[in-house]
Amino acid sequence: MTTNVRMETLRTPYLLLASPELGDPNFRKAVILVGHHTDEGALGWIVNRSIDGGARALLPEQLAAPLHPDTPLRIGGPIGTPGLLVLHRTPVAGIESTELASGLFVSASPDILSKLFASIPGKGIPAGLLIFGYSGWGPGQLEREMEDGSWLVLPYAEELAFPGEEETLWERGLARLGADPGNISSPPTGIN
After folding, report:
1. Whole-angstrom Cα distance, residue 59 to residue 49?
2. From CA 177, how far away is CA 191, in angstroms rounded?
3. Which of these, 143, 156, 112, lies nearest to 130 by C-alpha position?
4. Using CA atoms in the order 189, 86, 11, 21, what is the torsion angle rounded to 10 degrees?
5. What DSSP designation does 25 have?
6. Would you tell me how many other CB atoms lie within 10 Å of the CB of residue 110?
7. pTM of the full structure
8. Cis before 66? omega within 30
């Protein structure tokens, strides 16, 4: 399966859906929010995979203390990081963040934890995602993987990038592309 995505039409942020044919277990049914993509490579975070037990059970006490017990900790990808990142949708007063695109921010400030994750996670689109790790590609690598049909591309959609229900996100993404996950052999590609 190959895609007909033209690289010049890709503007971050966008979403990648792992093709059913992608054999890498790190990315099985993964939905990745790509926040950076240049000639030098690409960087993104898996948004539909959480660590069992939640963030409070796994983080050191000083980081876990301000978190609501039900706060999920997402596995952003197979590449580890020295700390946590928070992807969020709006600026947070007094918190240093980088705006990756309109309505998409990233912060490594521990002070953001109490501001976004202290209350009970609600239904719908969360204010932010607490992430450990990332997914990265070297120069031309992601483009080659797209050409090989490993990834399907969707334009950025807040409700997919910040999923409240991550368990069905991959299937919902495929449905947006007009594909039935149960009958997929050559899925459609998204952005042309």
Report:
1. 17
2. 10
3. 112
4. -20
5. G
6. 14
7. 0.87
8. no
* Helix H or strand E encompassing 98: strand 98-101
Answer for the pair 192, 7: CB distance below 8 angstroms, yes or no. Answer: no
C-beta separation of 121 from 112 below 8 A: no
Torsions phi, psi of 102, nearest 5? -60, 120
3 contacts 152 by C-beta, under 8 angstroms: yes
Domains and CATH numbers, the chain: 7-47+136-183 (3.40.1740.10), 55-133 (3.30.70.1300)
- In sequence order, which ranges of the chain are alpha helices (DSSP H)? 54-58, 61-64, 112-117, 141-147, 158-161, 169-176
Confidence band for 54, pLDDT divided at 50, 70 and 90: confident
End-to-end CA distance of the chain: 16
